[in-house]
Write a structure and sequence with these properties.
Elements (H helix, E strand, L loop, with lengths): L12 E4 L3 H12 L7 E4 L3 H11 L2 E2 L2 H7 L2 E4 L6 H8 L8 E4 L6 H7 L6 E5 L9 E7 L5 H11 L3 E5 L5 H9 L1 H18 L4 H22 L3 H8 L5 H11 L2 H20 L3
Parallel strand pairs: 1-2, 1-4, 2-3, 4-5, 5-6, 7-8
Antiparallel strand pairs: 6-7
The structure holds NADPH dihydro-nicotinamide-adenine-dinucleotide phosphate (NDP) and (2S)-3,4-dihydro-2H-pyrrole-2-carboxylic acid (A1CAB).
């Protein structure tokens, strides 16, 4: 995580749509040291705007004011709300602005078509661990975005985790894998906690055991450089407990279920591009 408190903060950033992901980004940026006066937010409902202002001391403005005043506009509304937002923004967004979209499925070309000629657009797929400085954000430039624009977008997402550049053709797959990924991990925690309860452990104990186990395993994966198969084999003693569990996971098709689940998420991302 980059400490932003000692850096030059030329850009002002507007987060348009401060919902779950918008808030994770705002919170992560402030924790990384970005001064609150460099951030503004927009929200559909005044009550949510007030909540954000009270919680983070960031200013809430209208979409039009954000478009006229902020250097970078981060579009963080649901894909289904993007059309209305672009209708509102399009008269005010000039090529001096950088537009960053984090919406699943919405392509840079679809956004470029709705704005005046030449506006740089970058599509980013972050994830909610931005909240704790551990996001995975993948960036893809649109047709007007230069190296300088990519660097500006990376400067927003690097302080809240890792960043990677990929061609836009891979962003629907990225959305399925790392965009939605935290939900699969939380789902696994929920299911394993239930399993602990089935085996007679108190819920809070089961929860703590599995959270630390997932955390430790993630650190091992990141720091050892070992292949996950090698790490799993090291846990799987001959004739032991782990292989008894793995047999059940294979019998219930967990691997196939994950392949199908991620394909479904990728397909849904593609569908959202068509406004469905
Ligand atoms: N949640 C996640 O983990 C991730 C989400 N994304 C993407 O981020 C975007 C937001 O997702 P998420 O945060 O989950 O959704 P949310 O619904 O929580 O957030 C969107 C927010 O935008 C508000 N909004 C809608 N229209 C406007 C508008 N015209 N002007 C200002 N605010 C508006 C919504 O208000 P209201 O509540 O009234 O609808 C809501 O508060 C989506 O496009 C999603 O694909 C990307 C990566 C991860
Ligand atoms: O569920 C969704 O559509 C969004 C995109 C990636 C994560 N959440």
């Amino acid at each position: 995580m980059t400490d932003l408190s000692m850096q030059d903060h030329g850009d002002t950033i507007a987060v348009l749509g401060a919902g779950k992901m918008g808030e994770a980004l705002i919170s992560g940026l402030l924790k990384a040291g970005l001064p609150a006066e460099k951030l503004v937010i927009t929200e559909r409902y005044p009550a949510r705007a007030r909540e954000m202002t009270e919680r983070y001391q960031v200013r809430a403005v209208s979409n039009l004011e954000a478009a006229k005043t902020a250097d970078t506009l981060v579009l963080a509304v649901k894909p289904q709300d993007m059309d209305d937002l672009l209708t509102e923004l399009s008269p005010a967004v000039t090529p001096e602005r950088l537009v960053v979209t984090i919406a699943a499925g919405i392509t840079t070309s679809a956004i470029e078509r709705r704005l005046v000629e030449g506006v740089p657009v970058i599509r980013v797929m972050p994830n909610t661990p931005a909240l704790v400085g551990e996001a995975m954000s993948v960036l893809a430039p649109g047709s007007n975005a230069t190296e300088e624009h990519l660097a500006r977008a990376e400067a927003i997402f690097r302080p809240v985790g890792k960043v990677l550049r990929l061609p836009e053709s891979q962003l629907d797959a990225v959305t399925a894998l790392s965009g939605s990924g935290p939900a699969y991990v939380f789902f696994l925690v929920e299911a394993m906690t239930d399993a602990g309860i089935l085996l007679g452990l108190p819920r809070s104990v089961a929860h703590d055991l599995i959270v630390q186990t997932i955390y430790g395993s993630a650190v091992m994966l990141r720091e050892s450089g070992e292949h996950p198969v090698a790490l799993r084999e090291a846990v799987t003693s001959p004739g032991g407990t782990t292989i008894a569990a793995i047999r059940e996971l294979e019998r219930h098709g967990v691997r196939a279920a994950l392949l199908a689940a991620l394909e479904a998420a990728r397909d849904r991302s593609r569908q959202l591009a068509g406004g469905q």
